[in-house]
Structure formats: structure tokens, C-alpha cells
Specification:
This protein is an alpha/beta fold and 351 residues long. Helix content is 28%, strand content 26%.
Length: 351
């Protein structure tokens, strides 16, 4: 079968590899659509960020090169012994978290902060940039009737956004700011809208992404090159937002997000960071602000799909390009680097 494998930075290859063979407790998936994630792009440009090459997930025996892709949907084509959650022919999405089930966080049900956290498509075990893949039964979620495979490929990134909003202190009627409106930032805006935020202010340099933020429900978009974003947010909100979401991973932006909040405001860090960011603790201390990190998602995929059936996180608004596996490097990764108008590129694993 065809699969996209990562060798090293700037070295991703479409190759023919052995199709997975079903095993007990496993589900074999014919992949239909898979999304290119920001973490995939980071891996392409600079290599693994938080999953070192020499430290694969603790229960995986794979060696590099690894099959990529962790945002995907597909059709169940085979089930192993003991599988009862799904049957052959079911349309499903994959929650790609690899967790040990034994550490302190896992024992409390917080598998997204597992001591040995990994992801199918990043840490071994196969991935969604392939014609077929095999996953544990617990990772499979049956899609609601009427949800397309394209829509299903957006469930994973939308889960990141919804988890971030759920973990914040945001209440119905509160004001929020989103710093960075790439795919996750835009999905955070949609999640905030679904959660009852009364005002949503986006901070974004790209005119195309600013327009998309407005389309998805932002109250206003501020270009930080044209005006001071913090000053503008304070003026528009009469003192700052209740919750700010940092979704850029840019060191200078973290302090701006904190500064944009009101007293006792909260800043949620959604980004995965490549470098160290410095902040002024007194800004937090003197106004009793809080800063909180969130990681991936837990227990949220069904809610995401339910919201999708109600008109949130729509592929029609977020997908800007569709390509086949053979074109993933030139028309996928390279296009995302060169063409800043793209939001989400989906890959047809069978095309």
C-alpha cells in the first residue's frame, strides 16, 4: 500500500509498504481523508518537536522512518478478536492518543497528559497518510449519520480547540481574545462561539486569515503590525478580556496575551513551543491573573461531532485545498510554507 513516511527534516517520501494485518483488539481502517497538521509541518521543516527520534512511544517497536498523519477519518474494513465497538463498514474518526494507562495521570482519566504520551502518526504504530492503518479499538469513534469523511478529518484539530475552551474559565457572556488564527486558532473561535462567548477578538497578521476569522464569528480582528493589539483590546472591552488564548507559539505573543486580559483574567496556552518564552510575573501577580497550559484533548470527540452536526467546525469554511498522497510534499507541505492563504489542506489517502 502507499504511505507517507518521515525520514528527517525536509525528507518525506511516498513509498509502498506492507499493509497492516489485523490483530486481536485492533481495528483496520481504510483511510479516506487526512489533514496536514501544524505539528506535521514542524516535523517537515525542523524535525520532531516533542517526540524525539530516538525515543519512540514506550509500547511501540517501530523504527524510523515512520508513517505520518494523525488527523483522519476512514472506513472499518476488518476487526480483530474481541472488538465490539465498531463493525465492518462503519465510518469512523480516530482519536490518535497513545497513552500507557498506568501512570498517575492515566489512572485519573487524564490520558492526554500521560507520562508516556504519544500519537498515532507521530510516535509510531502507523498513521493516516496511508491507504490503510490499524489502531486500538479505544481510539475509534463512530461518525454520526450524515457526517462526511472530509468533515471527519477535522474532528481531531477541532477537539484541540474545544478542549482548550472547556479547560478555560470562560462562562456564557464572557469576552475572549485569540492570538493567532491558523487552523487551531480559527477552530478556537468556533468553539468560543459554541460556548457562548459574547465578544471574540482575534489578533492576526494575515489578511486572508483575518477575513476567515470574521466569517467564523470574530467580533473584530486586530493586525498587530498596524496597531498595538493589547491597547486596542483594552479599549474595545473596557479593560480587557476574561480569557485569552495563545495559539502562535511566538515568544513575544505570550506576554501580549497575558496583558490583554482583565484583572483575574486567564491566559490559555494552546501552542506547542519550539523555543523559550519570557514573561513578567508581576503582571500576573499584581492582578491575580492565571496562566494555564492545555494539551491535545480528552473525552471530547463525541461532543465535537455533535457540534459539527449543528453547523460548527465546518469543512466547507476551513478546507482550502484537497490533494492526493503522491502530491503531499509539493502540493501539501511546500504549499503551506509558500502560500499563506491556506487554512487546512486535506489529503485523499485513496487518490
Amino acid at each position: 500500500m502507499k504511505a507517507v513516511r518521515w525520514y528527517k527534516a525536509r525528507d518525506i517520501r511516498v513509498e509502498n509498504i506492507v499493509e497492516p494485518t489485523i490483530a486481536s483488539g485492533k481495528v483496520k481502517i481504510k483511510v479516506h481523508w487526512a489533514g496536514i497538521c501544524g505539528s506535521d509541518l514542524h516535523r517537515y521543516t525542523v524535525g520532531p518537536i516533542f517526540i524525539p527520534v530516538k525515543q519512540l512511544h514506550h509500547d511501540r517497536s517501530d523504527t524510523y522512518p515512520l508513517v505520518m498523519g494523525h488527523e483522519f477519518s476512514g472506513e472499518v474494513v476488518e476487526v480483530g478478536a474481541g472488538v465490539t465497538k465498531v463493525k465492518i463498514g462503519d465510518a469512523v474518526v480516530i482519536e490518535p492518543t497513545l497513552a500507557c494507562g498506568e501512570c498517575a495521570a492515566c489512572r485519573k482519566g487524564k490520558y492526554n497528559i500521560c507520562k508516556h504520551l504519544g500519537f498515532h502518526g507521530l510516535s509510531g504504530g502507523g498513521g493516516g497518510f496511508s491507504q490503510y492503518t490499524m489502531v486500538d479499538e479505544r481510539m475509534v469513534h463512530k461518525m454520526p449519520e450524515g457526517l462526511s469523511y472530509e468533515q471527519g478529518a477535522l474532528v481531531e484539530p477541532a477537539a484541540v480547540a474545544l478542549h482548550a475552551v472547556r479547560q478555560s474559565k470562560l462562562k456564557v457572556g464572557d469576552k475572549a481574545a485569540v492570538f493567532g488564527t491558523g487552523p487551531i486558532g480559527l477552530l478556537v473561535i468556533d468553539a468560543l462561539r459554541a460556548s457562548g462567548a459574547s465578544e471574540i477578538y482575534a489578533v492576526e497578521l494575515s489578511a486572508e486569515r483575518a477575513a476567515k476569522a470574521m466569517e467564523l464569528g470574530a467580533t473584530a480582528v486586530i493586525n498587530p503590525k498596524e496597531e498595538d493589539a493589547v491597547t486596542r483590546i483594552h479599549a474595545l472591552t473596557d479593560g480587557g478580556v476574561d480569557v485569552a488564548f495563545e495559539v502562535t507559539g511566538a515568544p513575544d505573543v505570550l506576554q501580549q496575551a497575558i496583558d490583554s486580559t482583565t484583572f483575574e483574567g486567564e491566559t490559555i496556552i494552546v501552542s506547542i513551543w519550539e523555543s523559550v518564552a519570557s514573561i513578567q510575573p508581576n503582571i500576573i501577580v499584581r492582578s491575580e491573573r492565571t496562566v494555564k497550559g492545555v494539551m491535545a484533548y480528552r473525552d471530547v470527540f463525541p461532543s465535537v461531532m455533535e457540534l459539527m452536526t449543528k453547523g460548527y467546525f465546518l469543512a466547507d469554511k476551513l478546507v482550502t485545498k484537497r490533494i492526493g498522497l503522491d502530491d503531499i510534499v509539493t502540493e501539501g507541505f511546500e504549499a503551506l510554507l509558500k502560500e499563506k492563504n491556506h487554512i487546512k489542506i486535506l489529503v485523499n489517502a485513496q487518490g
